[in-house]
Amino acid sequence: MIELMKQLCALPGPSGCEDAVRKFVLEKVKPFADEIKMDAIGNIMVFRKGKKALERPVVVCAHMDEVGVIIKQITDDGMLKFGFVGGVDPRVVIGRPVRFGDVQGVIGIKAVHLTTAAERRTMPKTKDLYIDIGAASKAAAEDKVSLGDYGVFDSAVVEFGDGLIKAKAIDDRVGCAALLKLIEDEPPIDTWFCFTVQEEVGLRGAASMAYALDPGFAMVLEGTTAADLAEVEGGKAVCRVRGGVVLPFMDGATIYDAELFELLRNACDKRGIRWQTKTRVAGGTDAGRIHKSRAGVRVCVAAAPVRYIHSPSSVAAVADCEAVLSAARAFLEELGGNDE
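RE: above sequence
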């Protein structure tokens, strides 16, 4: 699974421009799929027949998109003014490389000796940043990029330290990798494996996917914020890298189904899968839109804890990522009545 995740993290796929990820996913799922659907906004819905069927469909999903940048203006001196696609902390991007296809650039800000004392005491705003692609003029920049072009962080995928991995887009290529591994085996029950779009800008793909399939149960595979850093105490850490798969009972968008939360915890305990829950109600997942679809959907989540999420260098533990896959397998086995 980790090799798959590395390949996925290396691909560009900001919200609304998930093409490279979608192409990769389609190539991987075709040998195993009984049916593949794609909707107008780019969701991939892959059906695999299982050993039994429930009354309403079962969905396991992950989002293909990542945070990124989009060009809003090209200045007379060839610099790019931009906006973020999704939620990005401007502090983490200064001096970091980005790319627009084959065009490379660096995110810059006014030199410190030109700033006022007041500016140095405040967090930089997106309007204060620019991307330098090395163009000598506006015309030279326009030969390389256009308004509305999407960019992503240009960051290598590296395993380091004691079982950690660093990459952009771990949120949510970890979930996509787990889905791709899950679909290789016959599931215990008929299952739709869904790869959604535009999660980072409002859970948009999940809304149309859930409406189309009208599932009875949905499990979301995700990456979630871990703040287990130096001098962060107690519950402020939210969850911890190397602490196991995260099984939240609530976040900023969803109160998760209590019975499924218990089922998932017990399933992990029976199988020796290390798990934790969030110690702060924060964030949100595609479940925020799925659970409100049509007459309602019962939802749960399994997530990998990720430090420095939505940055060029997110960090997760290999064991936690693999535990997401194990928890998803356990969930399907429990729904299918197989707890072995």
